[in-house]
Design a protein that fits this description.
By secondary structure, the protein is α/β, with parallel strands linked by helices. It is globular and about 55 Å long. The chain has 13 helices and eleven strands. Helix 1 packs parallel to helix 12, helix 4 runs parallel beside helix 6 and helix 10 packs across helix 12. A six-stranded parallel β-sheet has the order 3-4-5-6-7-8. The protein has a three-stranded mixed β-sheet with strand order 9-10-11, with no helix packed on it. It has a two-stranded parallel ribbon with strand order 1-2.
Length: 355
């Protein structure tokens, strides 16, 4: 039995719009791999506030490395896709989830990141990175100290500077999912991203999701401000905002842009729209439970639902439109889907391990 169904609508989109646009070899710089037995879902404790949206957890209960490989085979026939893998975890399950990533890296040869927690010493994080063969770290705002209100979390609350100084010495990769409701245009985020690169210039910093600029309103004057940090890298995973992608390419050029998927959530069937300066994921009826559980979900009619393809394809279609607008060549598209990530991974491995 197939992991998920590939429908005629999906085949049409891939064959008519994407196969020739995409290079034969791709690197997916942003993927989550975990097993549910290592990351059991628990209800919130009394008084605990959820610091993340609900809808991504509705797509897949877990995402083994075998499922990830199968996903690429189903979605990208005729292409070779190599992911950079890391977990998605809370403090209580950090050790088990990181151990599984290490196991997957050893089994497949895929590059991976260690999922760090801000309460760890620099020495502990470094020890885990070197022992596991990781190329750097990923962390998340949920791991910031519990006393900080979700809307007030800052970058250095979950990536503390004592860890960053060590990662800078290593020349490691850091995958940064920025916090705060203002997203990319938030002035605190912008100043801290610039501060991050000024203080730790050897860190290979990736701004995930184009800084969570999922709508036109999220962009603001961010790219003008971030011109002060010209060596930032950006992935456009889980994003379908053509405007943000176009502004990104215009501002930094294809040399600083990378394809990412945020797997497994891009297995979702959805078409994203903007409404009242936020995003809405339109989904087929009944596929992801009660849409009232998350304000970003909305069901469409059964007829409309049959026309909805994968989130993965919608993301790449948006990037294709942006690439057309700015006039990217085929070689520059390949840069975004393969060359930039290959260079980043190889250079980090060379600096950290001398190979």
């Amino acid at each position: 039995m197939s992991l998920f169904e590939v429908k005629d609508v999906d085949r049409r989109v891939y064959e008519q719009e994407l196969r020739d646009f995409l290079p034969d070899e791709m690197i997916d710089i942003h993927t989550h791999v975990w097993l549910s037995k290592y990351r059991p879902e628990k209800p919130l404790a009394p008084g605990e506030v959820k610091r993340a949206v609900t809808w991504p957890s509705l797509v897949a209960r877990d995402n083994s490395v075998e499922d990830l490989i199968e996903t690429y085979k189903l979605m990208f026939p005729g292409k070779k896709v190599t992911p950079m893998i890391f977990s998605s975890t809370k403090k209580a399950t950090q050790a088990a989830c990181n151990a599984y990533i290490r196991e997957c890296m050893e089994k497949t040869g895929f590059p991976g990141l260690y999922y760090s927690s801000p309460d760890q010493s620099a020495e502990e994080v470094k020890r885990h990175i070197l022992a596991g063969g990781y190329l750097g770290t990923k962390s998340y705002l949920e791991l910031a100290p519990a006393y900080i209100p979700e809307a007030e979390i800052r970058i250095f609350d979950f990536f503390p500077k004592h860890q960053l100084a060590m990662l800078d010495e290593m020349g490691a990769i850091v995958m940064l999912h920025i916090p705060r409701h203002g997203r990319l245009k938030d002035p605190v985020n912008l100043q801290q991203m610039i501060e991050f690169k000024r203080e730790f210039p050897r860190i290979r910093l990736i701004i995930a999701h184009i800084g969570r600029a999922y709508t036109k309103n999220d962009v603001g004057n961010a790219f003008e401000t971030l011109a002060a940090a010209p060596d930032l890298m950006y992935d456009f995973c889980a994003n379908t905002c053509e405007y943000a992608m176009t502004k990104l390419l215009e501002a930094v050029g294809p040399e600083h842009v990378m394809f990412g998927s945020d797997m497994p959530i891009l297995r979702m069937r959805t078409r994203r729209i903007e409404e009242n300066n936020t995003y809405i994921n339109l989904v087929p009826p009944g596929l992801y439970g009660d849409p009232k559980q998350d304000s970003h979900l909305r069901e469409v009619s059964p007829e409309e639902g049959e026309k909805i393809t994968f989130f993965m394809y919608e993301e790449i279609l948006a990037f294709k439109r942006a690439a057309t607008t700015v006039g990217l060549t085929k070689d520059e598209v390949k840069m975004c889907f393969y060359d930039n990530a290959r260079k980043l991974i190889d250079s980090a491995r060379r600096d950290i391990y001398g190979i």
